[in-house]
Design goal:
Layout (H helix, E strand, L loop, with lengths): L34 H10 L3 H5 L3 H21 L6 H4 L1 H25 L10
């Protein structure tokens, strides 16, 4: 069969047409978690509030500084100090991370639930 081209079989001929999934622009945005839920998770587990907000790098940064400052204050204090006093630097960053997770979740919540206003002149 020299010179004659054989027709190639259509790979999609035997398959059923799959339903079309909407693209990212067509799909409605996923609603953010309620800020109090993010606050509760952030208060229980350090860094999880930032993860729930979609900020993995920020969560790792807070964990790093929490452990670093906890270690530093542990080595700068004496054994006579209380547990909280010995790890005060870590607890300080922990408190900041909880407030940061709640603040960012509240901002996302307000932006998502904002009622669009009509533009002037329309």
């Amino acid at each position: 069969m020299s010179g004659l081209a054989m027709p190639r079989p259509d790979p999609a001929a035997g398959r059923k047409a799959s339903p079309r999934r909407p693209s990212a622009e067509e799909a409605p945005p996923k609603p953010p978690l309620h800020p109090w839920l993010v606050f509760a998770f952030a208060a229980i587990l350090p860094g999880v509030g930032q993860l729930l907000n979609g900020n993995a790098n920020r969560a790792l940064m807070f964990l790093f500084f929490m452990l670093s400052l906890g270690w530093i204050t542990f080595h700068l204090t004496t054994p006579e100090h209380s547990f909280v006093g010995r790890y005060a630097g870590g607890f300080f960053i922990y408190a900041i991370s909880v407030m940061d997770a709640y603040r960012f979740a509240r901002l996302r919540w307000q932006i998502y639930h904002r009622v669009p206003t009509a533009e002037p002149g329309t």
